Amino acid sequence: MKNELTPRIATLREALMHKGFTNRSKEWFVKSELPNVGKMHPDKHVIVRRAIAIDEMLKALCDKKKHAHTHCFEIEDGSLLAGIIPMGSNGLGKVFPNYLTDEEIRVGSVTNKSQMAILGHNSINYENVLNKGIGSIIEFAQSKLDQKLLKGVEIAYDKQAFYEAVVISCKAVVNYANNFALLAKHEAAKCNSIERKAELLEMARICQKVPEHPAETFYEAVHSIWLVHCCLHSTMDYMSLGRLDQVLNPFLEKESNKEFACELIENFIIKAAGRLNLTTQYLVEQDHMDYNAALGIHPYYLDQRAGLNNFLQNIIIGGKKPSGEDATNGCTFLLLDAFRNVNLSTPGLYVRLHKNSPRKLINAVAHSIKTTKNLPYILNDEVMIPAMRDALSYGEKDHKKLKQFESLANDYCVDGCWEPILNGVSEWTFGMINGMTILECALNGGAALSANPELLRGQKLSIDTGKIESYKDLEEALKKQMQFFVDQSAFAMCMYYMTNEFVVPTPLVSALFESCLEKGIDKSWGGADYNIGGTILGGVPDMINTVAAIKHWVFDKKKYELPEVTAAMRYNFTAGDSGDVKTQRLFDSIKVDLFTNSPQFGNGQSTNSIAKHILDEFYQAVLSSKDLAHKVFLDPAGDTDPKIVAMRAVAGYYGEALQTIMPGFNLTFTAGLGTFEQYNWQGTGIAASAARNSGDPLAPNFTPTSGTWHTAPGQLLKTFHHLKLDRFAGGVITDMCLDTDVPVEQLIENFITHKGGMLTLTMASPQYQEIYEIAKASNNIEDKAMASEKLVKYADIMVRVGGWNAPFVSLPLPHMENYINRPVGEKN
Amino acid sequence: MSDSISYFGIDWLSKKDGPGKRVVLFLQGCPLDCAWCHSPHSQPQKSPLLYFESLCINCNRCMQVCPNSVHQFHNNLHTIDRTNCTQCGKCIEACPQSSSFKKGNALVLPTKTESIEEIYDQLEPQLELLSKDGGITFSGGEPLLQVDTLIKLAAKCKSNGFHTALETSGIVPLKSVQKIAPYIDTWLFGMRLTTGTPTISIETLYEKSLSAFQFLKTQKQSQVIVRIPSIYNHTDTPTYLKKLKQIIADHPKHLIDVLPANMEVNHYYTASGKTSNICYTDQQARTAYQSINECLNM
Fold it and tell me: What is the pTM of this model?
């Protein structure tokens, strides 16, 4: 277990941190300097245009003359890996050549789609790239092209165009690697150090060989993955890295120099973090985001500041093999050690653990968490495997298929965020719904509890589920509202598949998906073996707290009438300018009861039955949506059923069933609980509720709302046991921020035993407050650079921001405030 | 209630109250009134209403709901007359700065009386978390005042594999110590050869301490850690130290803890509306700590 960085890695890390505090806005590509492929080749199939754009982008990356300011065609001093990803992130956007025609862009305005849609949320299984090389993919696609494929029934899905696009984009990757081989040779020729010259020549040799050809050594394997990762992330596909310990271990076993192997992985981590922005001074200049939705068909909605250092790249280690045996290996520990040593906020590291995971692994994970204060994050196989297996098996009776689903579930991983997916064989999309909006609609006959008098009862968002006169009425209304919002989300996912294929085809990613390549069907055309659509419910702890408070004070104690409570929530406990003293007194009393005198989620058993009820209703709603979506949008039988055709028209769709257009296509529906980074935003516009004022943040993911967790971690772990989380294949993630005295090993074990879903642990820092003060002051002082300098010493403090880790210094102020309120342990 | 226990607090993760990391249940009631006691509200059968001035926002709501005029406000000064307080809890329910669900409140009625089952259900999840490196500590007050019900809770904890510790002064009937002994793994023996107050004679304190301590020394299944508070002018006097040495002369050094004085001794006195009987400076506290350690060759 190595603990200290080598001088090489220490220097590379220091250089990255230094760069992170500078103005990086000039490093971005300028879109107008990139070719407009849409104009150059308007008559080519969109997938071919996308492939040409990939080629143009990868060429631009290696064009030092034209794009020197991007620093993308360089080899850092001392680096063992060549290839640099250009600036871009989930929060700041990306720059990529235009490949749609003007008319396509205009029509796409209806569905908020264009080529700038941030993709990702998926991962690659690099096994094939390492064992066969990209050259074999080119050969395979070329052989298909030589067969002169006819355009078949799937007329829009031109297989000829698909294979042509695969060849173009894969060759672009090979050329990118070879360009770095030439650069390394060139640098070697200029180099005076014998040692460094040898390193550069070795890099040149490797970049000439991989990823085109199979990798034979650990170094070649790591470099091959790095180069492909660079190409994907440079060309709009923010794909995650998958189960690297499984992929790399055969190569590691052959590697005699384990210290070099660790140094190489550390180098890999620093390279992947190369886009970090640690100062927030220059962000507006770097805002390259546009309106396009990554997932679904709504304009992009994201807390850009919180996502500025999110690159949708995770590595997953440990867990089980497809056979069900424990998958822990030497590379599991190597990756864990490297991440612990380097301690950066990206890439993310997830460890899969199960009840038979080796004790040595659990101890190493705990040691890493205590050292880094937050890495790795934990996935509970005891929950995630059955959840994924059952979601895949829904409605399936065939024993052979069920067996296959078991293996696939054993091999699950997560994408670049935290959504569970299948390892390199699935396409994933999701819709998010706000639990507090659902609750407001249940309390207010389908309308939000807005205070605007012009909206009368409030903004009408849903069906009117009637007046609530008993707790049973509330349960019934909640059930119906839940179904309405889940339907809306689930059917929108079908719409995604009806539009996406013509806008953002993915020839490079599809080339790396065996099933797409075999079938000649792009991933965006439904070519992946499995297509998963998740509905993620946010604000659940707030729902639980509010329902518990209403039940207690309105229906059990009968201290208030429900309209009094909903009025207090609507008006944020303020009677307004009317000066109505009686009303204000009532609202004051309601506020105190909702804030301090009601049971709150995570503090014991008192809210368990309400929590379970909400989760049950949500899960059932997702299953019910799946059944209806299948009947209306997927099943070819509907093509000749006038009732179904009419229902499709009601949804704004006039085409054939998805399974008619894309034979073999299915959509696995999953349910998940969480908010990602959006817990602050999701609270905006939401009326006051238990333990929060109007507009205050919601609970982060499936975690007690900030400031409401008063007991002990053990209480929350025990709560999981009652909630049956092993049905939520869309993931259930809890972000604990704890006192450093907590016994981490035992906490991990109990989390597994009590069947929590996914867990991130942040060991609370006493420095949150002082960082916040400096960051807050910097908003009001002229010399922002001085504030930035003061923050440098805090750059290594990382926290979880719902969907990913982020350096605390780079967080928006509301996120900092949220963290300051989180740790458990108030004093008497 | 024969199967219930009165307690005034739970510490979910303490590193100071027994081996490893502990959940500490503080039981209500104490026969002593040590001058240096930092939890004076633990002494009566029921704690008085506690009031933490720094958390009060002077909203007057407590005054509005109190049926007995316990709370008064004059020029924004919140005064409390506890003589008429019936502990109905209405002021806490009305107070935006107080909650019966959490710590850190302006107004507190800390004493809760709950069944063994209810208490165990609360403790168990956290005990599971601390089970490999800690356990449960019963403290107080004097926990052995409720020995008959505490035995059941201690037995339940022990039978579920949790390490048990009990903090006592030993100034209780010896049979109380004897009854519960089979269920306690570690004794935190808070030696009280003086209390600094005349309530119980020095001779009685000595006799009871000696007999309890001698009995515990015979209990081979358990460990006894002697805890000696270092209180200037009380537990560092030559007479006191002489008696102390007589009792613990052959006790292993590593099982003797000399405890530094709590410098925030006034905290709960102020909150209870009382005045502390004791006052010592930092320097005096350090001197006392040092001289006890030197005397015991620690």
Answer: 0.94
